[in-house]
Give the backbone structure.
Amino acid sequence: MSAAPFTRLAAVAAPLIRPNIDTDAIIPSREIKAVSKQGLAEGLFAGWRYTDIGGREPDPGFVLNDRAYAGAQILLGGVNFGCGSSREHAAWALAEYGFRVVIAPSFNPIFQGNCVRNGIVPVPAAQERIEGLARAVAPDPQVRRICVDLATQTLSGPDGDENAFEIGAEAKEMLLHGLDAIDLTFKRRGEIEAFRAADAQRRPWAYL
Amino acid sequence: MVSLTLFEKLWREPLVADLGGGEALGLVARVFLHERTGSIALESLQAAGRPLLAPRQVFCTMDHVVDTRPGRTDETLMLTGGAFIRATRAAAERAGVQLFDLGDPRQGIVHVISPEQGVVLPGLTVVCPDSHTSTQGAFGALAWGVGSTEAEHAMATGTLRVKRPRTLRITVDGRLGAGVTAKDLALHIISRLSASGARSFAVEYAGEAVEALSMEGRMTLCNMAAELSAFGALVAPDAAALDYLHGRPYAPQDQAWDRAAAHWSTLRSDPDAAFDLEHRFDAAEVAPTVTWGTSPQHAVPLSGRTPAFEDVADQDSRESYDKALAYMGLQPGQALAGLPVDAAFIGSCTNGRLSDLRSAAAVLRGRRVAAGVRAICGPGSMAVNREAEAEGLDQVFRAAGFEWREPGCSMCFFAGAESFAPQARVVTSTNRNFESRQGPGVRSHLASPATVAASAVVGRIADPRELGP
């Protein structure tokens, strides 16, 4: 299934700048109730977002419950964002909630891949830059927006300050055009079949 | 000839095409699924009308949400657990993949049963929608965790598009001291390198201390590489690895085995191969280790104290340090040994194998769990369960006051059903001490099975070496 293409987004950015935010925190296992990629947004950050475990009473101290940041589509995170469990539900929950970009100093590689496959752009930026963006946004988050231009790989703050960011060529193509990786790979079916046949001669034990 | 690292050899073998920009298309030899994340991958493929390229190379188990109480059925304490189990069973049947279902004598935790069944073999690429897939790298396989969509890709196309990781060798010189385990070594390394210390690296564990580990110890070490955010972990396959795999159901047999074994003997880093990064550790410096906070990097020697903020591994902000201590109900400079515990758990893909149960049983034999401590042991697989029972280990655990469970992930994480009480202090042989990982508000201290057993007996965090024979 392909995600919506991503070119450029100027949006409200919510800060959650803590190191090692794990996928258990992004979507607790107890919130994964069905064999489905849907119905997960309500469980996003449930342990921090609600006053009680399993409850739905918003914790006023949590950034996503702050009306100033309503409608946020960009999340400002800390180092090693998305570490822990490989559950893709973390990316599904973020996407369903409305996030299209996560900006963090570094990402767990499995989570990073899950983002790309679900139309979320992982944007790496220095810790100081992210903290600076959070400060710049804070006076009026609804107006002071952050802009991410994927085509030019540019991240802009509300005062027009710009910096370039890195993203893999393949990830960029997939996000820009909303491509499905399986469709892309199917174009190489013949190549894969030929390689498998030769490999089965070299390493027969690899094939059952 | 160019000198290559073990990783580079494993990367080249299945390489179908270079996609440019550091990305490659590589064959995937084995896909292992479980009912928590595998069910959705199979259902999603089926909904898209995409058949599996090679169903016989795909395996599935039930481990994550299954009940582990004796006499279990498809129904679980977790309200919708049964739906995951039935959906997985139906999807696996439709897809024609081997399922190790509830009641099957081969059922167990994915990373425990994959080696038991000989599904993982040296040199193979193995993926599973589970972060602890790195465990299987202990056999010299390129094994890594993926998302569900990636698993779909692997099953539909027989390949994955992968960004090539950098190489990191972690050499552990010398020998671990008596009573110091692979788990202690793993926690020690994570505490030094941080929870992102091997991010995007393929780690090769090497050195005398690693070679001296049993296969089970190596699996524990590679398992915890997930807590370094590594792409995967490897140990070069040696006689111990081959001895373990020889004769396993899905391993090659007879002449086919000989041919494979000859190839596998070439799977080691060349003596002068260059790594992108190297770290060295001295095994003699490793002591029984326990975590104090809410990240596996928050680990100190069991005889130590919660660190001052200035002394914690890098990358912890003041806010997250304070939050971790507050969550754990601890103060800076507080001794770990002697903290009263409410519960103890032994099991999981990290430490749920026979040698883990043996080391805990050695502590528990002739002793009783302290009053008020709830203690649970969950063997990693039906095979571990049978072997443990044949040795009478289950009797040792039961006599000591432990609950003896059926195989599964059990209390390693809270899926909405069983847990310990809020703010309960739990010593656990599992892999993650995240906030609420084992239940709402539960305070998890990661440690080796022997430390968990000793702490259960004393009723406080305790060093198994100090209990005496």
